[in-house]
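Collaborator request, handled under Task 6.
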Amino acid sequence: MGESRQELVAWLNDLLQLNITKVEQCGTGAALCQIFDSIYLDVPMARVKFNVNTEYAYLQNFKILQGCFTKHGIDRPVNVEQLIKCKMQDNLEFLQWSKRYWDQYFPGGDYDAVARRRGSGAPPAAAAPATRTSAGAARRGTTPTAGPRVGKAAGGGPGSAALLQENNTLKETVQGLERERDFYFSKLRDIELLIQQACDEDPEIAKQEDGLIAHIQTILYSTEDGFEIPAENEALDDQETF
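Structure tokens returned to the collaborator:
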């Protein structure tokens, strides 16, 4: 039987010096990339994006992970479409397998996770100052003893810890809302393309003022009072910002 969710999260945070709170966060692909970087030290971590919240950005991270698998002959299917949905069971199973692989192939020694992902836009390290993870401690799933570990920022207390927890909760809520927004937007876009295709094939249906196509288009393009449709160049800029 594999490790529990709590054990895996603790191991992941010790190894990578992160503040991951649940296995679903592995659905971004970033932490998984760094697990294998700790083994081979050749994953292009500067290209791995941590602070992202779109499935497109997750896909880019998984492309990097799949490149690592191909390079090292790792014969393990990566069900990207399932993992990027950030569902617990899919990510738990893949993380359990990753942990077993790491136990078998990690070469030992120290791994400076913070230094390896510098420049990747990753969040601050879980401990300060940055320390190198002890291979033996991480392998056992316990807290490394090589170097100081500081659980709280200097001057922190119960109040700051509560604010940090609230901030993390709000971030997770926003990320969930953005994923839901992207999901429904893609559905509406698919409907729009189907309507355009139907109108191209039979231009007469587009002229029917009281027809089904006209009613669907009215729903698709209606806006609320006070809402302004952004200019096309502004929309493109928003899409390119992760």
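The cover message to the collaborator said: "Confidence is low (pLDDT under 50) at residues 127-132, 140-155, 238-242. The first strand starts at residue 110 and ends at 111. Please let us know whether this matches your experimental observations."
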